[in-house]
Write a structure and sequence with these properties.
Distance between the termini: 33 Å
Number of helices: 6
Helix content: 25-40%
Shape: globular
Radius of gyration: 17 Å
Strand content: 15-25%
Number of strands: 7
Largest sheet: 4 strands, mixed
Length: 163
């Protein structure tokens, strides 16, 4: 879900930053089996612009263990020319991690990433047996593809210390 009152602010930040990618924050709301909210978390950080490809890769790798802010597709704005010029596509054969694989591919070509302090998105986590995450989580093949991509992506900064 996206809070529509933030759309104009997002468009303004997109216009002013002129970055290859804009990363937005979000709110996670967890519900119990009865549908009652049991916890709320906010994933955001202060505004920041990163200008080098190596710094983009380094920050992305750190975010996977910190707040997973760089994992998803839906909390960002992409420069379409990078997608088109590099023929980037989602892996349709994966049900888990296809978004992170796409982001790795995109970020290999990005030179500027802007982290916004806006958090317009709301995700709701429920204990649902029909969730794609529940049916995909234990598939070794999906995880193997994700780890291979992370290994390849990390080669870009292999000689640098990640702080």
């Amino acid at each position: 879900e996206i809070c529509s009152s933030n759309l104009e602010k997002i468009l303004q930040e997109n216009e002013s930053s002129r970055s290859d990618m804009i990363v937005l924050g979000w709110n996670i709301i967890q519900k119990n089996i009865d549908g009652k909210i049991v916890s709320r978390r906010n994933i955001t950080q202060p505004k920041q612009k990163i200008f080098s490809n190596k710094e983009v890769v380094s920050k992305s790798i750190r975010s996977f263990s910190n707040n997973s802010r760089m994992y998803n597709l839906w909390n960002r704005i992409y420069k379409t020319s990078i997608i088109k010029n590099n023929k980037l596509k989602l892996r349709e054969d994966l049900k888990l991690g296809e978004d992170v694989l796409f982001n790795f591919s995109f970020l290999e070509h990005a030179n500027e990433v802007y982290f916004s302090d806006l958090d317009p998105y709301y995700t709701y986590e429920e204990n649902s047996p029909t969730s794609i995450v529940n049916t995909s989580r234990m598939n070794y093949g999906f995880w193997k593809e994700n780890f291979k991509a992370l290994d390849s992506f990390s080669e870009i900064v292999k000689d640098e210390k990640l702080e």
